[in-house]
Amino acid sequence: RHTRLRTVTGVQTCALPIYIELSSDQVNIHPNPANDILYIDLNDVNAIDNLSISIYDNMGRLIQNTSNTNVVNSFNTKFDLSSISKGLYTIRIIADSKVYQQLFVKQ
């Protein structure tokens, strides 16, 4: 994760994170809409030291997440959605300094 320093005269400076996006060719989230299981496939991602995948509801609350380390080339996982309500959700994938977000529907 990179940081950008923001300088404003007379105000304290702060560091803001800068993320580089993962390509949609590298991420496959399926099926969408989903019923009870959501699959996430990452391909051609080289080496990832820290991987975080999170699901948020439409109010921005964290619903589920998983973290992994030392991912090489590809990664596959699934989320059990059987206990969450129907609706619109956001999945956020952070792979080191790269980020990917996508909406999905839980039926």
Fold blueprint:
Blueprint (H helix, E strand, L loop, with lengths): L1 E7 L2 E8 L1 E2 L5 E4 L6 E6 L4 E10 L5 E11 L2 E6 L6 E9 L2 E9 L1
Parallel strand pairs: 3-10
Antiparallel strand pairs: 1-2, 4-5, 5-8, 6-7, 6-9, 9-10
Characterize the structure shown.
The protein is mainly beta. It contains no helices and 10 strands. The chain has a 5-stranded mixed beta sheet with strand order 3-10-9-6-7, with no helix packed on it. Strands 4-5-8 form a 3-stranded antiparallel beta sheet, with no helix packed on it. Strands 1-2 form a two-stranded antiparallel ribbon. The protein starts with a strand and ends with a strand. Residues 1-5 have low confidence and may be disordered.
Largest sheet: 5 strands, mixed
Outline the low-pLDDT stretches. 1-5
Give the strand content: over 45%
The helix-strand sequence is EEEEEEEEEE
**How many DSSP H or I helices?**
0
How many β strands by DSSP?
10
Task: Name the structural class.
Answer: mainly beta
| Quaternary organization | single chain
- Helix coverage percent: under 10%
- Compute the average pLDDT: 85
Strand order of the largest sheet: 3-10-9-6-7
Query: Ends: how far apart?
Result: 34 Å
Shape by Cα distribution = globular
Rounded to the nearest angstrom, the radius of gyration is 16 Å
